[in-house]
C-alpha cells in the first residue's frame, strides 16, 4: 500500500544512477472540475518520459495531480503539498491497460516546502483553477505557457524507491514509486489557495491518504557518493527535453 514513511531502519542503499526525466517547457492547459484533485492530464501519445534510475522500463507521462498535505512523510513530517507525476510503461497503449500489470505504472513524487515567494509554475495553474466553473465541467484554456521545470527539483539523483499502489481508488498494486528527497518551494499564500479549492460546493481542505503499513516492503534509498554525484554532473546525466504538450487541469 502507499503512501509510506521513510524509516532509516528499513532502508536499503542502492546505486542505480539518476532519474532521466523529459520535462516539457510549456504547453496549452485546459481546466475543468471533476473529483477531488487538481489534475493535469497529458494528451496522448505523449513523449514526455521517465526512465533510468533503476526503473524496469521507460514510462510515458499520463497525468499530474496534487495532494495537500503531502501523502508521504519525510524526516518525520508531512509537507504542505505533494505532486504526483503518473507514468505508464510505454509497452502498453494506455494507462488503463498498464495498471493491470506488475510495475505497469511509475509515479514520481515531489514534496513542497513553504516560502514567502510564490512558485511561478504553480501560480499559473492556480490562476486557472480560480476561473473554473464549480458547477459545470467546462474546459478553460490557460492563456500563458505552463512550465513544469519549476515544479521539479534540480536534484533527481537522490530518491526513495519502493513498490506500492495508487493512493486513490482502486488503489491498484502496480506502482513503482520514486520520491525525490529535495523539496520544491511553494509560497504560503499558494498553500492557502489549494485549501480553498472547491468541491461539492465547499472547500477541499485536504485530500491526502493516511499512512499505510509497510507490510514488510523494502524502501530503497538512492544516495550516491560525492564522487559519483560529481561525475554525474560532469557527464550531464540529466537531460531536459523541451516538448510541447497539450495538458488539462482538473479540480
Descriptive account of the structure:
- The chain is mainly beta and 251 residues long.
- It has 4 helices and 18 strands.
- The chain has helices at 95-98, 120-130, 188-195, 226-234; strands spanning 11-14, 19-21, 26-32, 38-42, 49-52, 59-67, 73-74, 77-78, 81-89, 105-115, 140-141, 159-164, 175-180, 184-187, 198-199, 202-203, 219-222, 244-250.
- Strands 1, 2, 3, 4, 5, 6, 9, 10, 11, 12, 13, 14, 17 and 18 form a 14-stranded mixed beta sheet that branches. The protein has a two-stranded antiparallel ribbon with strand order 7-8.
- A hairpin with a 2-residue loop joins β15 and β16 (202-203).
- The longest helix is centred in the middle third of the chain and has 11 residues, at 120-130.
Please give a quick description of this structure.
The protein contains four helices and 18 strands.
Element layout with pairings:
Layout: E1 11-14, E2 19-21, E3 26-32, E4 38-42, E5 49-52, E6 59-67, E7 73-74, E8 77-78, E9 81-89, H1 95-98, E10 105-115, H2 120-130, E11 140-141, E12 159-164, E13 175-180, E14 184-187, H3 188-195, E15 198-199, E16 202-203, E17 219-222, H4 226-234, E18 244-250
Parallel strand pairs: 1-17, 3-18, 10-13, 10-14
Antiparallel strand pairs: 2-5, 3-11, 4-6, 4-18, 5-6, 6-9, 7-8, 9-10, 12-13, 12-17, 15-16
Amino acid at each position: 500500500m502507499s503512501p509510506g514513511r521513510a524509516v532509516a531502519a528499513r532502508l536499503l542503499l542502492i546505486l542505480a544512477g539518476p532519474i532521466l526525466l523529459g520535462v516539457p517547457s510549456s504547453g496549452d492547459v485546459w481546466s475543468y472540475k471533476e473529483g477531488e484533485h487538481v489534475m493535469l492530464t497529458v494528451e496522448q501519445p505523449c513523449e514526455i518520459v521517465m526512465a533510468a534510475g533503476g526503473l524496469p522500463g521507460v514510462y510515458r507521462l499520463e497525468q499530474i495531480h496534487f495532494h495537500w498535505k503531502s501523502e508521504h512523510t519525510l524526516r518525520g513530517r508531512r509537507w504542505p503539498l505533494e505532486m504526483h507525476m503518473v507514468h505508464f510503461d510505454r509497452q502498453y497503449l494506455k494507462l488503463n491497460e498498464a495498471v493491470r500489470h506488475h510495475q505497469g505504472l511509475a509515479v514520481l513524487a515531489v514534496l513542497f516546502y513553504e516560502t514567502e515567494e510564490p512558485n511561478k509554475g504553480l501560480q499559473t495553474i492556480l490562476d486557472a483553477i480560480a476561473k473554473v466553473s464549480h458547477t459545470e465541467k467546462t474546459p478553460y484554456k490557460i492563456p500563458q505557457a505552463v512550465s513544469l521545470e519549476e515544479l521539479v527539483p534540480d536534484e533527481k539523483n537522490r530518491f526513495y524507491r519502493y513498490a506500492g499502489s495508487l493512493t486513490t481508488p482502486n488503489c491498484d498494486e502496480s506502482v513503482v514509486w520514486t520520491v525525490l528527497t529535495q523539496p520544491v518551494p511553494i509560497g504560503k499564500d499558494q498553500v492557502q489557495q489549494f485549501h480553498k479549492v472547491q468541491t461539492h460546493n465547499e472547500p477541499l481542505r485536504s485530500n491526502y491518504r493516511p499512512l499505510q503499513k509497510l507490510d514488510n516492503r523494502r524502501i530503497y534509498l538512492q544516495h550516491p557518493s560525492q564522487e559519483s554525484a560529481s561525475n554525474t554532473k560532469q557527464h550531464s546525466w540529466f537531460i531536459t527535453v523541451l516538448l510541447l504538450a497539450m495538458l488539462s487541469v482538473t479540480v
